[in-house]
Model the fold of this input.
Amino acid sequence: MASDSSESIQRAAANSPRSLSGLLPYLRPYRGRIALALVFLVLAAVSTLLFPVALKLLIDNGLVAADPGERVLALREHFLALFGVGAALGVFSAARFYMVTWLGERITADLRNAVYSHVVQQSPEFFESTQTGEVLSRLTTDTTVVQTVVGSSLSMGLRNTVMGAGALVALVVTNPTVMAQVLGILVLVVLPSLVFGRRVRKLSRASQDRVADSSAIAAEVLNAIPVVQGFVQQGREAARFSASTERAFDTARKRTRVRSLLVAFIITATFGALLWGLYQGTQAVIAGHITAGHLGQTVVFVIILVSSVAVLAEVYGDLLRAAGATERLMELLATRSPVAEPATPRPLPPPGTAGASGAGSRVAARGGGGSSVRFEQVTFHYPSRPRQAALADFTLHVQPGETVALVGPSGAGKSTVFQLLMRFYDVAAGSIEVDGVAVREASLAALRGRIGIVPQDSTVFSTSALENIRYGRPDASDDEVRAAAQAAFAHDFITALPEGYAIYLGERGVRLSGGQRQRIAIARAMLKNPPLLLLDEATSALDAESERMVQAALEAAMKNRTTLVIAHRLATVQRADRIVVMEAGRIVDVGRHEQLVARGGLYARLAAMQFGMEAVAA
Done:
């Protein structure tokens, strides 16, 4: 991890507050509100700068009047003027606070939405190299840092810049000789500040990377709590998270130490320079060159300038931290999925109208519905395993309405066929067609809208049973959802739950058994009613009785549609039109169950292990 930290620091070496320019597209839609916020900001700053002027008039004109009556009237007028300045400052500051806080919240929400919308469009290849916890860290921690800057620090910085510049100009105009010396000293303050700022910038990015590491560990472990507790590894995982947190703390401590030194140096050096100017002013009063009111005005302008510089030092640190957060977010937004929409998508023809020739008698008996699928000499390597072919010279033609089973040992490439068919990845060589259209040329939405899938690891969302099934077709009515549940033999167990279809199923469906989750997924696919159905061990989590019921439902669902089935339990595929036997990414045999057993190849060996030699012979 130490090397990771140094790498993060090196990667951040080129960072600067200019990285915040990545936020400009999110600021442009609110130009009017930004302009209004700037108006209130300037008015608040001007109100502050008017205070020392009013104070000078109070001292010179209100306290030096000879007649006591005139003095009382003058004091009353000047105190009313001071109150007016304070009231204006209060109103303009409140308006500024509201506007910039609104902008911070709105822009952060837009940024989060943009990042999330972008991430969910990425292909699975993105998640092979990026941990979910890393993405969550950027969505939460980094956007919160940006919100702090846009909704607070940036406004404070601009306000204090206006106030500091105004105070500086006033001091130069009223005390040109003295302030020329002070400005010369202030220039010397800037150079060391740049050195400190560079170090803070590097450590800010490294600190955020370390926090992301902790988030990634937490997300991984919390999603696998049953496994962690089953192997009694809670202590080990807690220690691993603690070590990651300590690394994040150590980097943050270094960043805070350097930033504290930066703030201390800027404030001390600036205060010292301005005290020199103030000393020169007191000498001028003693010499009779300026009035007491002039000196009082100078003191307040000095206080405003010093406080502005102090605030700007803090804001500069926040800007450096936000620059690192913004860069991380922009990196995520700049990621482009290798699976891209075609520039001019080809429309998919109606299901069953392409590639229907040559269908067997069993397919013809079903009416030839569904979609055709063609794999032509496909070769594919997963990006994380570039030297190992997941599929090699793979050719498979599936007719509309045909049911084809893919069997073979683990790692044979069966699931890869599904991944490529849904175009989660693009092939390195060869082509894939659905209804006569290459998947690369079809719209992703149109392609995937034509496919229904029941995965082996059924996903259940943390919402009601009704909405989980409706996920297959969001515009479906409640009656249609219940009909799909009945067809998948899920209706009875759902209605037996305390709140029926309205019951909250918990995160990842923890309130359901594995078989119940799988029937929810089957109902979801049946509700979608696609012409092409992909079943990946769709009955693997069911008991024998439930499997028979669901198998009957699936056979009904497979009518008039093309179905590809992945199964390790060969009893579920014996009635398939064809069984494709795969090994090491290649097709090694094709046929019906009886033919494959008679040939005595890999399928026969798999069948013998499952059914026993006597059952196979029978």
Notes: Confidence is low (pLDDT under 50) at residues 1-15, 355-368, 613-618. Residues 128 and 384 are 7 Å apart (CA to CA). The longest strand covers residues 389-398.
